[in-house]
Amino acid sequence: MKALARTLAWPLALWLAALPASAQGVADAAAGRRLYDEGRFADGRPLVGLRTDGVRVSGAQAACAQCHRASGMGGAEGTVLIPPIAGPLLFAPAQADHVRTPRRASGMQRTPPASLVRGAYTLQSLQRALVDGHGPDGAALGYLMPRYALSDTDVRDLAAHLDTLTVGPAPGIDGQHLGLATVVADSAPAEQRQAVVDILQRCVAERSPRGGHDSAGRPILPWRLDVWTLQGPPDGWPAQLAEHARRRPAFALLSGLTGDTWAPVQRFCEAHGIPCAYPNTVAVDPGAPSHWTMHLSLGVAAEVAALVEHLPDLALPGTRPRVRQVVGDGEAARLAARLLRERLSRMGWPMADDEHPTAERRPVTTAAASWPDELLVLWLEPEALGRYTGTSRPPLGPVVLSGALGGLEAAPLAPAWRANAHMLYPYEPADRRVGRIVLNAGGWMQRNGLALTAELSLLQGNTYSACEMASRALQMMRGRTSREYFMELLEASAEGALATGFPRFTLGAHQRQGSRGAYVMRYDPTPPEGGRVHLRRTSDWLTER
Known about the structure:
- By secondary structure, the protein is of the alpha/beta class.
- The chain folds into three domains: 2-96 and 111-162, no CATH class; 178-299 and 430-511, Rossmann fold, CATH 3.40.50; 301-425 and 520-543, Rossmann fold (3-Layer(aba) Sandwich).
- It has helices at residues 2-8, 12-17, 21-24, 29-38, 65-68, 87-90, 123-132, 152-162, 190-207, 237-247, 263-272, 300-314, 331-347, 382-390, 403-406, 430-447, 457-477, 483-490, and strands at residues 48-50, 56-58, 75-77, 80-82, 147-148, 178-185, 223-230, 252-254, 276-277, 293-297, 322-327, 374-379, 399-402, 421-425, 513-515, 517-523, 535-537, 542-543.
- The strands form four sheets. Strands 11, 12, 13, 14, 16, 17 and 18 form a seven-stranded mixed β-sheet that branches.
- A hairpin with a 2-residue loop joins strand 3 (75-77) and strand 4.
- The longest helix is centred in the C-terminal third of the chain and has 21 residues, at 457-477.
- The chain is globular, with a radius of gyration of 27 Å.
- The termini are far apart.
């Protein structure tokens, strides 16, 4: 019996190799991947399935990944369990994860789903399941599972792809630890870097399992956190990241802070298939590849979307004020300016040439010379913002500034500019934001010997939430270590965003940013506490439509 179980647990590639040559054929895993991920055959025809409730699905809607996900680890559709079908699990007897015993009335019997107590699949029983809708033990599959018209070759190709969906050892797992890392760069302020590292080290140590095995006998490894420090300009970061990954591989990167740009780290994660969970950055390009990267928000891209939605409210009825951008030297500022220009170009909105002030040379008369029907947009960080507005008169028309770049309430906008200023604000208003961070992270930080400060509270709350969300996803894996599966679990981790600075934080399948909007704020002419800057909300939460 044990020998039979070992045989059924073989990787499918070995199992196929053991078949007679006449039965093997040549399995095409690439063709199987197209069926699984895209719902189409090698010749481009759509896969078609029919459910027992009469619903017909085709193409992407019929693809296996639609329900069983790219990892093959399944999940749930409402109250319906979607079982895992990754090869190492499908072609072995099912093993239920007994995490807890559900409550039930006295005398009530609980029958586990058939998918949790089934025998191992073979090629023949897999074809029967796909074509006729019955599992390896003869039990009828659920109504959500379509029935397909598939040939022997199609099933063999699909099975070959399923065998590539690994569950087990992955980079960063050495048999003793599951390795995590956080990335910080010396271009970020030292106090902020230390705040991120302090929170992550304590959070990972506290959330890490202590070892042992799960109910299915799989090892549960404790976590280890490394700090990958990047030095010098960003063009040297890829080589440094590669060296860190060679010396101490990481299963996933957690949070992190690199200052003005995160793009080189994101490109590294995408190129090497490394999950990158919730870095602290506002330079988020929604057009950049982001399968392996989860962001807390869209950053300055959310501000651009909010500004485009709010533009009609800044213009006189029936007019389109010409937009002029003043763009700082940083990556986030340049990204925001590019995204806004692209959006307005598609809308046919008039724009002037961008300005790029520097510390050495800046046209000091331009702002004062603007017309009432011109809208000035300032993509400037604090130092440049204070210098630009402090050395020239305010324009006659409205001014819009980036809160994410300028520093929110601490933005050094010259007082004379405030009357016509509108601030893009991609966070919860300060009073509510700080209160939530104190409530959900303050006690934990105090118990761990960390000080929650007003200046760092947004960064601290976001970092704590990033650790909480990633920890929940890691715990849900329960020994089934797969980077793809981890990314899918991150998509369901929004409940862990306890102390983020965002009023709305949601995630879902294939969603890679938790917050996607911003408010528009105005300076209160009569601030409450003698001279302290106070911003009042003048718009709803604005997102791209």
